[in-house]
Design goal:
Blueprint: E1 27-28, E2 32-33, H1 36-40, E3 42-44, E4 51-53, E5 57-60, E6 63-66, H2 67-77, E7 80-86, H3 92-101, E8 107-114, E9 121-128, H4 129-136
Antiparallel strand pairs: 1-2, 3-4, 5-6, 7-9, 8-9
Bound molecules: zinc ion (2 copies).
């Protein structure tokens, strides 16, 4: 039994047109699902000024951005990274050592702690080095 016939239909976030088949309207980050007409319309990136199609743009904090600027902006928000290590796979001292020596590039290790609800998973928390330094100076 299929129950998705009408429930899965999207409405264009710009002109309000309805989908005739589920899944045909592309998703634009920060905008919503849009019809192909609006999706093909040109928008200007507010960061680099390039004209791109709406479907290859994204909206972040009210600004229209091309995808590469969007990724760059997004990266700035990724200030924290948490990585999990499993004590079943390697002993705790090894995990501590690895958490420190294998920190993602540009990040500083803040803490290593036991994962919540787990007796064998450790979580290493990293912070963007530039933010870490800002906070510590
Ligand atoms: Zn539309
Ligand atoms: Zn751009």
């Amino acid at each position: 039994m299929q129950h998705t016939s009408s429930k899965g239909l999207a409405t264009c976030a710009i002109c309000g047109a309805g989908e005739t088949q589920p899944g045909t309207f592309p998703m634009v980050v920060g905008v919503g699902r849009v019809c192909m007409n609006d999706g093909m319309a040109k928008v200007r990136c507010e960061s680099c000024g390039t004209e791109v199609k709406l479907i290859t743009s994204a909206k972040l904090q009210g600004r229209t951005l091309c995808l590469s600027d969007y990724m760059r902006e997004l990266e700035k928000f990724r200030q924290h990274i948490v990585q999990a290590f499993d004590e079943k796979a390697e002993p705790a001292p090894k995990i501590l050592e690895r958490a420190y020596s294998e920190a993602p590039q540009g990040y500083t290790l803040l803490a290593v702690r036991r994962g919540r609800n787990s007796t064998h998973v450790w979580e290493a928390e990293y912070e963007k080095t530039e933010i870490f330094q800002m906070r510590c100076s």
